[in-house]
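pasting for ref. prot 1 ->
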Amino acid sequence: MIKTFAFTLLLLSCLTSMAQSFADLVAEVNKSVVTIQVLQKQNTGLGNPNGYTDAQGMGSGVLVGEKKIYILTAAHVVADASKIQVVFADGTTTGATIRRIDKTADVALLQLNEVASHIPPAKLGDSDAMRIGDDIFIIGNPLGLEHSVSRGIISGKHVEENEINHNRSQEFFQTDASINKGNSGGPMFNMQGEVVGIVSSILSFSGGFEGLGFAATSSVTKEILQQTGRIWFGTNVIPMSAEFCNLFHIPQEGALMVQAVVENSPAYFMGLKGGYVKMTIGNTEILAGGDVILQFDDILLNSNENITRFYEYLNSMKKGQNYTVKILRNGEIKHLSWRMQ
């Protein structure tokens, strides 16, 4: 009886210690987690090229790097943002700009306008060492509830290769940890407090969490963001098939239709124009009336393969490099030139 009682006390003590250590771990890494507030300018789609409305969005992110000026987040959180504000757990707020971005892997690197000197950055872990079944936890802003914590396991790992160079272009962890709107871009931590993923999306039929969430792995994130390229061009485009091109009288069998251009982006300064007339073709809703990109330097965008080559070429461009874009605007061929900043 005495032995049983002693064992019970020991078990309760261990469980209490584990709960306290996890809470301490969360409290420590939470300092590096941020709320990202974005402002987007969107055309109303009612036929006015200058008819814009402002839309606000929110996501999550995490401070990384010894310089304390870089934020990791999801590409889809910031890709169309004309203004980005970063809010730390202690209420400190500063602006940020996109440094590098990859929409395929859904990761982006932001640079803060001010050094976060008083905030400890998170450590990037080795996602390749993570196994299915390992414990993880996520901190973010689901449904605007800032710095919420959810806990789960790695449920699976999904990898897709790049068609051009056969490197990993997409690699996602699947998790059962609760993820909702606002979690996007937030960090997935291992139980050592290291970032092993950046929350990307949920698979849902209701719009809420249904047990399947995904995060881009830290290994692929590091591979992408340590490269010199991954240029943020500042456009939202849709590929045009041969049938699509024929419908719009495009003089080739493939192209990119510009939907929107982000303010103060390279595409904005070189003069590209987005669409302003809402249309639905099949199950696809588009903004027509904007520029159609036909060629980028010597790459004719007349096939899916060449469009993939274009993205690879764009991501390999160096600072100061000149480039020319051939477009179709209001039935006329035009050439726009710019120098990579």
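and prot 2 ->
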Amino acid sequence: MRSLLLFLILATTASAAEVSSPRATELRHLVEQDCGACHGMTRKGGLGPDIRAQTLEGRDAEGLAQIIKDGIPDTAMPPWGPLLADQDINWIAQYLLEDTEE
């Protein structure tokens, strides 16, 4: 997992609006493994809350990205801003809101 985080820190992205297809694959893996460690491998909740699209319905991508970037103080939700570029965080927020896989 540490090597994955190091790779994510060093990897580059295509633009602020989108990420390349290989980067999207890496970010999906990050969501599955790293987010899944707390939010459950199916994102239905665990230590952290349910983060499936139907549960996040009504939230905006910007607010969700801010949570991902800054974390939530006094909880287990860490800030990912020091490890991920803003475009990566924005992609993850949008992915969580749109992903309908169970």
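The CA atoms of residues 37 and 46 lie 8 Å apart.
Helices lie at 2-10, 21-39, 53-56, 61-70, 86-98.
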